[in-house]
Amino acid sequence: MHPRLPALALGPVDLVVADLARSAAYYRDAIGLRVLAEVDGRAQLGVAGAPLVRLVEEAGAAPAGGEVGLFHLALLVPERADLARWARHAATARVPLEGASDHVVSEAVYLRDPDGHGIEIYADRPRDVWEGRVDQLMTTLALDVPDLLALADPAEPYDGLPVGTTMGHVHLQVADVPATIAWYRDVLGLDLVATYGPQAAFLSAAGYHHHIGANTWRSAGAATAGAGTARLARAELRIPAADLDATLARIDAAGGAVVREDGAALVRDPSGVPLALVAAA
Q1: What is the pTM assigned to this prediction?
Q2: Low-confidence ranges of the chain (pLDDT < 70)
Q3: Is domain 9-279 classified as CATH 3.90.180.10?
Q4: Which of 43, 97, 186, 192 is the most buried (most CB within 10 A)?
């Protein structure tokens, strides 16, 4: 029996970008986040004062590609109608999209920021539809876009992502899926809820369909992106305070380095993905 975290939440995702002004404008105007702070080559964007994305400028950084790191960050809106309003905004503003999918557990729209970082904006289906059956139900179907857009009033001005939007999950590009499963399940304490063959895995706490996704579709055997490339600087995992010390002890016992910095424990998963573990409020 592996250790089990009773809960997990995702905090802000930190991204290295080539042009801070360009990226901040994109996350404000296309995605619908508010700029909360901007100083010294860094910006925080979020909803209702809570940061969700933090940008760090490395001027001229090359676009993100097939390196280990971020596949996409996933912003979870509270209701399907909120996803509809965002989708209508995207259509009206001609925001370029990469796809739109019905995963049965959720409905999602996909796009990329100016540096190639993947973004998902999604709404969950009711939990009683999928809880306990994620491995049987989660799939990828075409999203019924007309049905979704019918929920949004075309005359209603778009005012950004709504209060209650959170970082629902992060999907990672990793070097090796079995090693990733072993670490997030047997060391961190998440449950493995679904796999797509040997190339992708989905893990969560407390029965959610996934807090962490991982795949090797572009990154099998790859290394983490280095300086000079747009990349994931870190993803924040919020662990119940009563479980944090034991979690860090397991990471240490497994040979992982733990660096304490500004109230966070900085660690890397087996592929080198940078994570910040913090005590949940």
Answers
A1: 0.98
A2: none
A3: no
A4: 43
